[in-house]
Amino acid sequence: MNYENVITERHGKVGVIQMNRPKSLNALSSGLMKDVSAALEAFEKDGDIHAIILTGNEQAFAAGADIPEIKDQHFIDLYTTDFINADWEGIAKCKKPIIAAVAGFALGGGCEIAMMCDFIIAADNAKFGQPEIKLGVIPGAGGTQRLARFIGKSKTMDLCLTGRMMGAEEAENCGLVARVVPVEKIMEETIAIATQIAKYSQPTVKLAKEVINKAYETTLREGVKYERRIFQALFSTEDQKEGMNAFVEKRKPDFHNK
Ligand code: CO8
Question: Are 110 and 138 a contacting pair, CB within 8 Å?
């Protein structure tokens, strides 16, 4: 499938979606977000794809909403079209694991869509920020909420109220980013990580993701109970038998995603 604003690639069982509007530092136009959404849906439906990577280029993951495109809109326009929700929240709803490979700028909506992914691998040149305050607005695609859950209130206030950017090292130290790698190795490393995930039992990977996400939406007591149920339920799968038998028999497991 060809898209105007994204390039898709397959590396074995890993699907890569590369945002491709380099002249505007991957500003998130409605066209780009529609293409990201469509590419994501196609990989989500594709049984041969087990893990997904969302990325940009070395200069920018994405520098936020396309400012010229939205600058003249009014409340009623955004409200009526439910601006943001339709094409943006698909990332957060995706059942397959999705990794953000972030090099360069991840600002505003760019930082927000990186946070909608399951985790972030950052290049050493990555710069994260929620600079909306400088434009007279606030984050609008979950930035205040997800950032606060990642890095806590103090740093979220600092970033959202000053609009400053945070480098990769600081982002790793405060828990926004899972790993930092040299910029020239960002895709190689992220594909290796996704390939490792893609080898495991797919129902188990999806359920692990679902259970971890529960931690953000429920009490500890309910979350632990939910985790236990899913742990118990996985003993009804062939892959659990295969995984544990393979360990006992000192061989590699051969998962069939059942
Ligand atoms: N929208 C449109 N074009 C952009 C954007 C953007 N967000 N960011 C950069 N560009 C364009 C520039 O206009 C420029 O184009 P041109 O060459 O035609 O003039 C080109 O990209 C290169 O940019 P710069 O020349 O500015 O490059 P610098 O290296 O000097 O600076 C920066 C890079 C710091 C990233 C700078 O471009 C910048 O500050 N960009 C704006 C960042 C920003 O404010 N982002 C937040 C936007 S608001 C938002 O994301 C709200 C999200 C709400 C939910 C979702 C809504 C869709």
Answer: no
How many helices and strands in the chain, by DSSP H and E? 13, 10
What 3-state DSSP class applies to 123?
A: strand
Taking the whole predicted model, whether its pTM rises above 0.90 is answered as: yes
Instruction: Compute, in angstroms, the gap from residue 55 CA to the centroid of ligand 1.
Output: 17
Confirm or reject: Cβ of 131 under 6 Å from ligand 1.
Answer: yes
| Structure-block tokens of residue 95 | 């059942």
pLDDT over threshold 90, residue 197: yes
The answer to whether the CB of 27 is under 6 A from ligand 1 is yes
Active site (catalytic) residues = 65, 109, 112, 132
The rounded distance, in Å, linking the Cα atoms of 26 and 59 is 9
Determine if ligand 1 sits within 6 Å of the CB of residue 107: yes
Q: What is the pLDDT of residues 48-82, one digit of tens each?
A: 999 999 999 999 999 999 999 999 999 998 888 87
Cα of 248 vs centre of ligand 1, distance in Å, is: 55
Q: Whose CA is nearest to atom 14 of ligand 1?
A: 24
The Cβ of residue 150 has, within 10 Å, a number of other Cβ atoms equal to: 17
Q: What is the pLDDT of residues 131-158, one digit of tens each?
A: 999 999 999 999 999 999 999 999 999 9
